[in-house]
């Protein structure tokens, strides 16, 4: 759709069409809703003012950018939509600006970046602004401020973004000084700024401008005409500029408007009533985690914990409510979560750092230097390990075993069901070194295998024993997958719940190597550096050469998003597919 020639009235109709389409598809398929509804006018204005054919358009999180997808020829494919992950858009903008400068294209091209207020709590934003303010590349940053992260935004930055400017005094002050300043030029600008400062009106404008970045705002992010004007001005400034736009999450769909977290990402729902189409009845691994942690907290007042802007997703909401002095939402700041929890461990507390598998990647260096190097007893509770479904390629929890296993002092283990989860949590709460436990999105697979026993460092549990040459080794959710596969085989095979991938149960593995010569590894994790790798390293160290190991972990590729069963089918890891592979 070419919107360049359309006037404001026509563009308002485009906005309405976009909202209708987003609502139609998301209510049918599920998806992210409220952020993207709120960003519609911003994106239409971006397309009106900037040129998508040559200006780099960079979105921090694609769940704000459905309108952009619709405007860039993806109306037909929109039914297949889900999200990307970001939180580094300004860095991408700075990189693009450098490329434009090297190519000598600054006269004709300019990067335009959209970033959410929640993302302003992530450190990388400031690393990029620090350089941008110094080098002054022409670039427009649209700060889409809906006063929400997924949950309520945390911290001084978000407070500053909204509070000072919302006050009527500030708004009056700003209006008066602006007209005054316009009449008196540069020197007056300086005086006005100093006045704002001395009146303790610490505003985002001051902060950004002190960093060397121009600031325009706050502007009404739903007023198309004003937005187009302001973006034109910003584009022609020839300098970095932040346009601070205030938007309403869920705008245009009354039921979802405002600060209700549940409309951030939704399953299919009924458009009329807003009620959701289906609810899962099985207890999720996250729910079990919450219950186990609440129970441990009752008797151990040293337990503390953090989430990085995912209180609901990680199940920490109830702990934050019950123990406001022991549990913290630290905003989108995984690095800070890891390091600050490490310091608490040094002070004798027992931190549970609760983070999705994929997001801990942000805190890798901190896990090495601030936790493991000091051998501090931080527990990393990794939710969403394995395939996470529709949330995007970036959200798959594939790499945690591979990257954590390499770190000295780190212990890795995983529960396979509700009972073993409680034992794993008890072990974690008593363990005096860094450790990490992983668990899946949704519920554990059900088995009728023997019940779990207490967790003991480096000890596996043999769940099913047989004369067969075949041994299925499961880790975490892989145990249920091994069980379902075993049920489809012609003979009864042995099944081992590995429990610990570091340290391995060497005694058990030596014994198994004598009794079974065909081993199959089941774990919802990347193959490289994963559970199979650990076992092969062990066999090589022991010079056990007569055992054949086949790992059913993920191949060396990024895994697309979509329905979990369909993805697993495409990877060939559904139990019926695995059974066929084992039968040969
Ligand atoms: C490193 C990392 N941590 C956490 C998340 C989960 N997450 C996705 S969007 C989001 C909130 C972003 O807030 P904001 O930038 O204000 O955008 P909004 O959703 O309000 O439109 C969070 C916490 C993530 N994607 N990446």
Automatic annotation (TrEMBL):
Key words of the record: Isoprene biosynthesis, Magnesium, Metal-binding, Thiamine biosynthesis, Thiamine pyrophosphate, Transferase
GO CC, alphabetical: cytosol
PANTHER family the record matches: 1-D-DEOXYXYLULOSE 5-PHOSPHATE SYNTHASE-RELATED, 1-DEOXY-D-XYLULOSE-5-PHOSPHATE SYNTHASE, CHLOROPLASTIC
Start and end residues of each Transketolase-like pyrimidine-binding domain: 283-447
EC annotation from Swiss-Prot or TrEMBL: 2.2.1.7
Involved pathway(s): Metabolic intermediate biosynthesis; 1-deoxy-D-xylulose 5-phosphate biosynthesis; 1-deoxy-D-xylulose 5-phosphate from D-glyceraldehyde 3-phosphate and pyruvate: step 1/1
Family of this protein: Belongs to the transketolase family. DXPS subfamily.
Required co-factors: thiamine diphosphate; Mg(2+)
Subunit structure: Homodimer.
SUPFAM superfamilies in UniProt: Thiamin diphosphate-binding fold (THDP-binding), TK C-terminal domain-like
GO biological process per UniProt: isopentenyl diphosphate biosynthetic process, methylerythritol 4-phosphate pathway; terpenoid biosynthetic process; thiamine biosynthetic process
A Pfam family that the UniProt record links to this protein: DXP_synthase_N
Protein name: 1-deoxy-D-xylulose-5-phosphate synthase
InterPro entries hit by this protein: Dxylulose-5-P_synthase, THDP-binding, Transketo_C/PFOR_II, Transketolase-like_Pyr-bd, Transketolase_BS, Transketolase_C
SMART domains in the cross-refs: Transket_pyr
Keyword Magnesium found: yes
GO molecular function, one term: 1-deoxy-D-xylulose-5-phosphate synthase activity
